[in-house]
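Following up on my earlier thread - several people asked me to post the actual chain instead of describing it. Fair enough. Here it is, all 269 residues.
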Amino acid sequence: MRQFSPEYLRRTRQGLWDGSREALGPLSLADRKRILDAGAGTGELARVLDAESPGQVVCLDADPDLLSVAAEETGLDVVVGDATRPPVPANTFDLVVCQALLVNLPDPVAALRAFRECSTDLVAAIEPDNSDVGVDSTVAAEVTLEQRVREAYIAGVETDVALGDQLPSLFREAGLTPVATRRHYHRKVIEPPYDEESMAAAARKARGDALAEHETELRRSLSPDEFDVLRDEWREMGRAVVEAMREGTYRRAEVVPFDVVVGRVDDGA
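Reply from S.P.:
Thanks for posting it. Predicted structure:
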């Protein structure tokens, strides 16, 4: 499983559920008594679960550093452990849910089977479809370059980061009966006046930080020369973004689709 920094998780998950939580309806959060957030990271989803449910929310993650942030910032209980082998007794929770976890696992079905063992009722997965991300920008090179990077990343990553409509079949394979499927769109917009986070994002582009974060995956699908050319073009694009922000003319919109699938524990599985 790939590892992520707290800063990366905040940057990619911030505001995910601010606009609408309608897609979380099938989780029946108001009726939950005990919820396990598997692969909780720094607790972005756990905060939402805690706000929407009267039940107890527990954060599980293999990275103790991320969990320490979750514990400090949410005040929720945390458990260090592998999502495919949760160190909790069977039938402890009435909902086990993960967000952007299965796309990072080599065997997502193994995790779903483990979640089934932990739950008396529901298992839910909220997963991004990275093959269907949409980007629009006033810096034209940003649109084409992000598409090239995304395609190279998907080709080079060792897990399926575009599960999409495969999720229901994975649930069935794990012995879970899918009862609901929703699609939630995470829309992120940068426009004047720019806040500090937006300015920092532009500076990261100019430095090529995004490519550095995913260099291992990109180099699996690109030759050394192709990677070097892409990095140079990316940094040039980043400088153009910084300049456009100085002029107040930069605007960027990104839409990341998330599939929400809820399954019921099949006692006969």
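Residues 224-247 form the longest helix (24 residues). That should answer part of your original question.
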